[in-house]
């Protein structure tokens, strides 16, 4: 465990998210606030789900392994559901905020649209979720030790970093999908998001059989990415035009 | 306390924000056109946040009628854009405060995590005489409550003393007190800090070099904070002294006392700023009666000015106003200046004579700023630093407290935009911070540890 591991894992886990932040969020104060508020909402959801799990664990027999495992599974699933519930609450709050922003602006349009808010909220959730999963690991990676010396997987840090990255992306896309579903009353989109989240969290139960958790998660991420892209107004032609423009050297005119 | 700042023009000609020397005092705001103000005075500001309304707010609440006189309304041509700009300004102000608060916390957390000195127990301050080394929980709790009572009483006494000094115009005394405390912070504490950092990284430094560094750092700091200096440098120095003060608190306050003190001080802040007989409120009102600016050296101000077009304003007319400003520096010792401690008072608009009409052509685009007292920085950093130092959940707890404090600050600024008067900046943030510290440390940490052990992701 060296500086190389630390930096490598940090950049794997947070590099893309940091890039997203730098290029799309950092310049606009309103988006930064929405990001931090999103992180806060995720934090509150985590708090409540930990509270429930903690009470359940304290009320149960600590020596019963199977029960503890069962409680852990319950804790994870409950936490996922609570996160999505808080995403919905955040959507409600942002809806009210947009109405306020529209009322305050002179031409009746708010400076930020609900789709942009959905994206930023997703990034906020993702960053906080990733940070909570990864930061302690990174701090430990700086210190002395050997990974997997007791027979566990030696790829622990690396797979954690990849898992964190995919989760951050997933949260971003889920934000877009979820808000779109709420906006247009498409409940099947919302249930799809919840189902995907449960699937991803459930797949991590396969760890350390990483092929069972990382591969499905990345596939789900690709699906969610394509879906979110289509919902945001993208299409195959847009993509083609974008790529072709790049090849021809002209700057692409992309709609936001 | 947290207040809106209307503008902080430099006393001399307006310059580019990058080159202007920002006076430490809040200079008078040249009143643009009284007639223009009068027309706006009657507007209902209830749900439309107009820039003029917001900028007029500190005065409105304290003395109703004088709102017209000093408030600058920039260009009437810009009024239409102000509506939209106001909210953009609102969000911008939040970020203008997020950045320094974050920087201060980063400095404190980085120091706590790397320099052992600030987490070692080496005695206690005389303000917290009761030791917490007792075996029983009840005794320890009692000792920490007693420590808190003593500390808060010291603060209350000092605040009242300061208010009395200010009321009876003992400006020289306050001035001297303030200079003495900044001297101590900038030289002594910096010397100790530098010494400990060098020890941690095992870097050798000879005394002449050390003297040179500390002397330059301290001298430039004194000038920037108490006189004039580039805005960014002034802000950087204020952040650094807040971080130093927070580190001192983290080192010398015993564990439980620190948490109880944080809680008690936010309650005190709430009362001192909002109650009619609160010392800070009286300070604010006295300053407004006298049309004097608020403590320059103990407030972090985020204002910037940009000017487009360089018509020189009528500086002669502003001359007589300057004298009142120098005298009005309120001093509170940094190390016991809580957020409310005088440092946050609403910007008073002094009734500056109107500019000559030629300056109408001048396109001066001024950015409003928000002021946050250094005590707020200090106590936010104390909370996050203590979380970093003592939480066994390590970084999760620190991160949670950080986000909680930022959200609290955001909410406080929202309330500021709504109520438009000086508000205590500690209560909401510290409450969130404390709640999140204890719940993350005791509830979230075991959950996340178990998840990490099994490599599960939620």
Automatic annotation (TrEMBL), chain A:
It holds the Pfam family Aph-1. One of its GO terms (biological process) is Notch signaling pathway. It is found in: Membrane. Signal peptide: none annotated. The chain crosses the membrane at residues 6-25, 32-56, 71-90, 117-135, 155-180, 211-231. The keyword Nucleotide-binding does not apply. One of its GO terms (cellular component) is gamma-secretase complex. Belongs to the APH-1 family. Potential subunit of the gamma-secretase complex, an endoprotease complex that catalyzes the intramembrane cleavage of integral proteins such as Notch receptors. It comes from the Eukaryota. Its main location: membrane. It comes from Falco tinnunculus (Common kestrel). InterPro entries: Aph-1. It is a multi-pass membrane protein. Component of the gamma-secretase complex. This is Gamma-secretase subunit APH-1. The keyword Transmembrane applies. Keywords: Membrane, Notch signaling pathway, Transmembrane, Transmembrane helix.
Automatic annotation (TrEMBL), chain B:
Residues 1-79, 326-365 are annotated as: Disordered. This is Presenilin. InterPro entries: Pept_A22A_PS2, Peptidase_A22A, Preselin/SPP, Presenilin_C. The keyword Transmembrane applies. Its EC number is 3.4.23.-. It comes from Falco tinnunculus. Keywords: Endoplasmic reticulum, Golgi apparatus, Hydrolase, Membrane, Notch signaling pathway, Protease, Transmembrane, Transmembrane helix. GO terms for cellular component: endoplasmic reticulum membrane; gamma-secretase complex; Golgi membrane. GO terms for biological process: amyloid-beta formation; calcium ion homeostasis; intracellular signal transduction; membrane protein ectodomain proteolysis; Notch signaling pathway; protein processing. Probable catalytic subunit of the gamma-secretase complex, an endoprotease complex that catalyzes the intramembrane cleavage of integral membrane proteins such as Notch receptors and APP (amyloid-beta precursor protein). Requires the other members of the gamma-secretase complex to have a protease activity. May play a role in intracellular signaling and gene expression or in linking chromatin to the nuclear membrane. May function in the cytoplasmic partitioning of proteins. Probable subunit of the gamma-secretase complex, an endoprotease complex that catalyzes the intramembrane cleavage of integral membrane proteins such as Notch receptors. Homodimer. Pfam families: Presenilin. It is found in: Endoplasmic reticulum membrane; Golgi apparatus membrane. The PAL motif is required for normal active site conformation. One of its GO terms (molecular function) is aspartic endopeptidase activity, intramembrane cleaving. The chain crosses the membrane at residues 94-112, 145-166, 173-195, 207-227, 234-250, 256-275, 399-419, 425-444. Residues 346-360 have a biased composition (Low complexity). It is a multi-pass membrane protein. Belongs to the peptidase A22A family.
């Amino acid at each position: 465990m060296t500086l190389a591991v630390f930096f490598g894992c940090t950049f794997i886990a947070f590099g893309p998210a940091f890039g997203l932040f730098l290029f799309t969020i950092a310049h606009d104060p309103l988006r930064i606030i929405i990001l931090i508020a999103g992180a806060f909402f995720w934090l509150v959801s985590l708090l409540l789900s930990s509270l429930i799990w903690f009470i359940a664990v304290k009320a149960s027999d600590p020596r019963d392994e199977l029960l503890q495992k069962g409680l852990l599974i319950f804790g994870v699933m409950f936490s996922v559901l609570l996160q999505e519930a808080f995403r919905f609450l955040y959507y409600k709050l942002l809806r009210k905020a947009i109405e306020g922003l529209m009322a305050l602006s002179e031409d009746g349009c708010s400076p930020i649209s609900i789709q942009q808010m959905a994206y930023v909220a997703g990034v906020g959730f993702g960053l906080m979720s990733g940070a909570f999963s990864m930061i302690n690991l990174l701090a430990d990676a700086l210190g002395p030790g050997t990974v997997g010396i007791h027979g566990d997987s030696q790829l622990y840090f690396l797979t954690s970093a990849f898992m964190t990255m995919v989760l951050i992306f997933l949260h971003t896309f889920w934000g877009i999908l979820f808000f779109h579903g709420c906006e247009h009353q498409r409940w099947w989109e919302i249930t799809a998001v919840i189902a995907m989240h449960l699937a991803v969290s459930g797949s991590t139960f396969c760890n350390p059989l990483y092929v069972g958790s990382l591969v499905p998660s990345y596939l789900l991420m690709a699906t969610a990415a394509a879906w979110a892209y289509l919902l945001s107004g993208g299409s195959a032609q847009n993509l083609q035009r974008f790529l072709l423009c790049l090849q021809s050297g002209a700057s692409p005119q992309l709609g936001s | 306390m947290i207040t809106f700042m209307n503008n902080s023009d430099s006393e001399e000609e307006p310059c580019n924000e990058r080159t202007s020397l920002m006076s430490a005092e809040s200079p008078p705001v040249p009143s643009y056109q009284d007639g223009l103000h009068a027309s706006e005075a009657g507007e209902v500001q209830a749900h439309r946040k107009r820039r003029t309304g917001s900028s007029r707010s500190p005065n409105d609440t304290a003395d109703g009628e004088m709102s017209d006189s000093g408030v600058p309304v920039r260009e009437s041509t810009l009024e239409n854009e102000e509506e939209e700009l106001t909210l953009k300004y609102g969000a911008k102000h939040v970020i203008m405060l997020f950045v320094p608060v974050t920087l201060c916390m980063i400095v404190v957390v980085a120091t706590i995590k790397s320099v052992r000195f600030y987490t070692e127990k080496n005695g206690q301050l005389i303000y917290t005489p009761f030791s917490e080394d007792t075996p029983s929980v009840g005794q320890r709790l009692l000792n920490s409550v007693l420590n808190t009572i003593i500390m808060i009483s010291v603060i209350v006494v000092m605040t009242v003393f300061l208010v009395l000094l200010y009321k009876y115009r003992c400006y020289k005394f306050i001035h001297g007190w303030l200079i003495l405390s900044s001297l101590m912070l900038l030289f002594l504490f910096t010397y100790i800090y530098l010494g400990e950092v060098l020890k941690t990284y095992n870097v050798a430094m000879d005394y002449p070099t050390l003297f040179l560094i500390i002397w330059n750092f301290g001298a430039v700091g004194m000038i920037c904070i108490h006189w004039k200096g580039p805005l960014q440098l002034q802000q950087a120095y204020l952040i650094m002294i807040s971080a130093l003060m927070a580190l001192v608190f983290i080192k010398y306050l015993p564990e439980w006392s620190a948490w109880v003190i944080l809680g008690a001080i936010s309650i005190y802040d709430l009362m001192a700023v909002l109650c009619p007989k609160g010392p800070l409120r009286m300070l604010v009102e006295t300053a407004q009666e006298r049309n004097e600016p608020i403590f320059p050296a103990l407030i972090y101000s985020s204002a910037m000015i940009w000017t487009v077009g360089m018509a020189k304003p009528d500086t002669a007319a502003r001359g007589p106003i300057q004298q009142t400003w120098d005298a009005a520096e309120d001093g509170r010792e940094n190390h016991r200046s809580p957020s409310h401690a005088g440092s946050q008072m609403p910007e008073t608009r002094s009734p500056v004579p109107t500019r000559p009409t030629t300056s109408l052509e001048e396109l001066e685009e001024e950015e409003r700023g928000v002021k946050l007292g250094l005590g707020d920085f200090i106590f936010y950093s104390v909370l996050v630093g203590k979380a970093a130092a003592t939480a066994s959940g390590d970084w999760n707890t620190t991160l949670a407290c950080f986000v909680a404090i930022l959200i609290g600050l955001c909410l406080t600024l929202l309330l500021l935009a709504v109520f438009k008067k000086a508000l205590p900046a500690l209560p909401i943030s510290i409450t969130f911070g404390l709640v999140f510290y204890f719940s993350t440390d005791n509830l979230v940490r075991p959950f996340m540890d178990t998840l990490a052990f099994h490599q599960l992701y939620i």
